[in-house]
Amino acid sequence: MPADASHREHEEMNNMRFELNKKIIELLRPEVTKLKDFMNYANETILHFKTTVEKFASANTGISEGISVALINLIDVLLKLDNLKDMKASIKNDFSRYKRAVGALQNSSNSGSSSGASGSVVPAELLEEMGLVQNFISGPDARKDMNFMFVSL
Questions:
Q1: Nearest to 44 by CA among 76, 80, 72, 78
Q2: Is the model's pTM score more than 0.70?
Q3: Is the pLDDT of residue 88 over 60?
Q4: Do residues 90 and 137 lie in contact, with contact meaning Cβ atoms separated by under 8 Å?
Q5: CA nearest to 86, candidates 144, 47, 41
Q6: CB within 8 A of 119, min separation 6: which ones?
Q7: Which secondary structure element, helix H or strand E, spans residue 88, and what is its range?
Q8: How far apart are CA 146 and CA 140, in angstroms?
Q9: What distances in angstroms separate CA 80 from CA 33, 41, 77, one per listed residue?
Q10: Closest of 38, 34, 117 to residue 82, by C-alpha
């Protein structure tokens, strides 16, 4: 925006940005919800896997071949899902855009601008959820070649 733009032009631009960010959130929110559901599924599955292995380890009776095969198949499925999640660059790109839109709405509502953002504070639960999903998407340390699900074991 030019430096000599009027106050009204600045307000119009801020309103357009605000509406754009609201639309982006509206569009990407169902996909982020799916990611959160996938994250919860993966965490619950890992918890059940750990509980099962600990149960058989403490019984000292050994594990039957059928249960061993089922546990190996479960590890295989978890690894495939984790690799699929990591291979899809669009997941990280879309989530990054979603975070920027939420951050922009949060900033505009915190600044109290007259862009229609007054009173539309981003809920703390949403920010916490975004942090959890971010950790799930990028893994515990994005610079290392580790699978999130297996670090949880």
A1: 78
A2: yes
A3: yes
A4: no
A5: 144
A6: 109
A7: none
A8: 8
A9: 21, 14, 5
A10: 38
Instruction: Supply the Cα-derived Rg of the chain in whole angstroms.
Output: 22
- CA atoms of 41 and 43, how far apart (whole Å): 5
Which amino acid is residue 127, in one-letter code?
L
**Type of residue found at 47:** L
Q: Could you report the per-residue pLDDT of 36-83, keeping only the tens digit for each?
A: 999 999 999 999 999 988 888 888 777 888 988 999 999 999 889 888
Tallying the residues shown for the chain, one arrives at 153
Closest CA to 26 of 101, 93, 126: 101
Q: Which residues contact 117 (CB under 8 A, 6 or more apart)?
A: 18, 105, 108, 109, 111
Q: Find where tokens 């032009």 sit.
A: 9
Counting DSSP H helices and E strands in the chain, the numbers are: 5, 0
Structural contact between residues 46 and 153, judged by C-beta atoms closer than 8 angstroms? yes
Residue for token digits 């070649």? Answer: 145
